[in-house]
């Protein structure tokens, strides 16, 4: 296996820091860039959530800023956090963990991240923090995949905590950490992609928010947006911050049913 080759040929520090950064950049841009292509070409337009598109200049600005943030914020954080993860028990030695160990940890990470993200995101929608920090992310009212990580450096650190708190608690194997990172990147890119396809995960998993759920959040004013969760929908349902979204969905369903009659 490739992971076994990497473990036997590179140090823990190289794998956990440089390796994680390369993996993140690869998955993020390979999964996010195609949505720019789809938007420019107009492909799958019937599945696009908003009719509005982003100009070329806005897309280029997003990519340039992302590269700056990733190399000047994300990479240094990965380097500096290595001792913390080592102290919490992270390891990269063989043998690889069994799926009986990996799957419960990944599920725990998703649940904990969603909970922490929800409250952190709500805090960012208070007036001062929105105006000075979170408004950067909301520059794109019509999101596309790469806008998922387009944010103020302070927000990258603030909400990034939600992603790393689970692994910091459990001290996983590096393989588990990488799998979690890949799944989290794919999830957030999908949530910001701007398209709701027949094969979108939210069509198969009722508790999953996805692109339709999060796109609504970007379309509205910060005081009325709701839909603060990152992955699931139950936190917004419990605290009533998805009422506007559910009302809109009900109206669309009623309208669609009326057209069938």
Strand content: under 5%
The level of helicity is: 55-70%
Shape: globular
Mean pLDDT: 92
Q: Roughly how many Å apart are the termini?
A: 56 Å
Helix/strand-derived category reads mainly alpha
Profile the largest sheet: none
The string of secondary-structure elements, in order, is HHHHHHHHHH
Number of helices: 10
Secondary structure topology:
Layout (H helix, E strand, L loop, with lengths): L1 H8 L2 H30 L14 H32 L11 H26 L2 H6 L20 H18 L3 H19 L17 H10 L14 H5 L4 H18 L1
Helix pairs in contact: 2-3, 2-7, 3-6, 4-6, 4-7, 7-8
Write up this protein.
- By secondary structure, the protein is mainly α.
- Helices cover 66% and strands 0% of the residues.
- The chain is built from ten helices and no strands.
- The chain has helices at 2-9, 12-41, 56-87, 99-124, 127-132, 153-170, 174-192, 210-219, 234-238, 243-260.
- α2 packs antiparallel against α3 (56-87), α4 (99-124) packs antiparallel against α6 (153-170) and α4 (99-124) crosses α7 (174-192).
- The chain is globular.
Structural descriptors:
single chain, 261 residues, globular
Explain briefly what this protein structure is.
By secondary structure, the protein is an all-alpha fold.
């Amino acid at each position: 296996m490739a992971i076994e080759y990497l473990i036997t040929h590179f140090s823990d520090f190289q794998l956990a820091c440089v390796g994680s950064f390369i993996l993140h950049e690869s998955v993020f841009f390979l999964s996010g860039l195609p949505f720019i292509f789809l938007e420019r070409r107009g492909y799958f337009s019937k599945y696009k959530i908003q009719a509005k598109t982003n100009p070329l200049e806005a897309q280029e600005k997003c990519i340039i800023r992302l590269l700056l943030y990733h190399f000047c914020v994300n990479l240094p954080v990965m380097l500096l956090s290595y001792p913390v993860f080592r102290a919490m028990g992270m390891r990269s030695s063989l043998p690889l963990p069994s799926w009986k160990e990996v799957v419960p940890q990944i599920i725990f990470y998703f649940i904990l991240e969603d909970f922490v993200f929800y409250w952190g995101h709500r805090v960012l929608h208070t007036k001062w923090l929105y105006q000075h920090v979170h408004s950067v992310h909301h520059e794109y009212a019509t999101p596309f995949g790469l806008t998922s990580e387009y944010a103020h450096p302070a927000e990258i650190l603030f909400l990034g905590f939600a992603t790393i708190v689970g692994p910091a608690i459990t001290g996983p194997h590096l393989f588990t950490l990488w799998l979690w990172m890949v799944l989290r990147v794919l999830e957030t890119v999908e949530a910001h992609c701007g398209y709701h396809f027949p094969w979108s995960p939210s069509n198969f998993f009722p508790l999953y928010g996805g692109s339709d759920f999060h796109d609504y959040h970007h379309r509205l004013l910060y005081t009325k947006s709701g839909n603060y969760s990152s992955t699931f929908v139950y936190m917004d349902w419990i605290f009533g911050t998805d009422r506007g979204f559910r009302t809109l969905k009900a109206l669309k369903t009623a309208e669609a049913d009326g057209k069938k009659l």
